[in-house]
Design a protein that fits this description.
This protein is 30% helix and 30% strand. By secondary structure, the protein is of the alpha/beta class.
């Protein structure tokens, strides 16, 4: 029986708008295919994880205060996290965690939270707290050469710039900045995005992309996932896309 090991970073601090639902979606769709799922949690001040021993690492979003605390804790693992990224461990990063993997995050008051500098992008918050990129969002992404529309919800004041590989093209909503045409960041083993908790439950294709990638990397062979009955999910997606885009 195949197994996937997942590490959930700071679940008590980085869980805005139901981000832990991504973990539940991964577990559900894996176990439906008789894939065993082990989920470990790392908390502030906890024992150092062996990042490279995991197949998937997930971190959600948090407010500036939580983000600053988490950044300090994560900095001690910078080299190990970089090593895991280089070795192909899959990282799913939402909102605040997305920002922390860049060069830095500049808050509303001008305070700088140093990033892990794993990637070259950086984020600066808009000084006006009332101005936020908020609301429903739809982007056009590509997974293994297949185009897919990604549906979700964004709520961020931070403006992320110098992103050289976006997650997708914005069809509705804001994206990385107010004037952006692109949303998020993606390479083969990293998806970093401002799309919150509904990401994987509303977008089964992404969930399956992550599961398939993790299994193929772990077992060193091409794997075709058993299809699941997504009739209900697809009907929901059709309704949302019709409402948002008129399709």
């Amino acid at each position: 029986m195949r197994e996937i090991k997942i590490l959930y970073l700071y679940p008590d601090m980085l869980n805005l708008y139901g981000d832990r639902g991504n973990i539940q979606a991964l577990k559900y769709r894996a176990e439906k295919r008789n894939i065993t799922v082990q989920i470990d949690h790392h908390y502030l001040g906890g024992q150092a994880p062996d990042f490279s021993s995991y197949d998937i690492i997930f971190a959600g979003g948090g407010a500036d205060k939580e983000q600053a605390l988490v950044a300090t804790d994560m900095m001690q693992y910078k080299e190990n996290i970089q090593k895991a990224v280089n070795e192909g461990v899959f990282f799913l990063l939402v909102c605040g965690s997305y920002q922390l993997f860049g060069k830095y995050y500049k808050g509303v008051e001008g305070d700088i939270i140093p990033g892990l500098e794993i990637f070259d992008f950086y984020t600066e918050a808009i000084p006006d707290r009332t101005k936020r990129c908020i609301g429903n969002i739809v982007i056009q992404a590509e997974l293994n050469g297949k185009a897919t529309k990604v549906i979700g919800y964004e709520n961020h004041g931070g403006q992320t710039r110098d992103v050289n590989n976006s997650f997708g093209k914005v069809l509705l909503g804001h994206g990385n900045t107010f004037e952006a045409t692109d949303e998020g960041f993606m390479i083969k083993n990293v998806i970093a995005t401002y799309i919150h908790g509904t990401l994987l439950s509303k977008n089964p294709d992404i969930t399956d992309y992550i599961i398939q990638y993790a299994l193929e990397r772990k077992y060193g062979e091409e794997i075709e996932l058993e299809p699941l009955d997504d009739t209900f999910e697809e009907k929901c997606r059709e309704q949302l896309l019709h409402r948002f885009l008129g399709e």
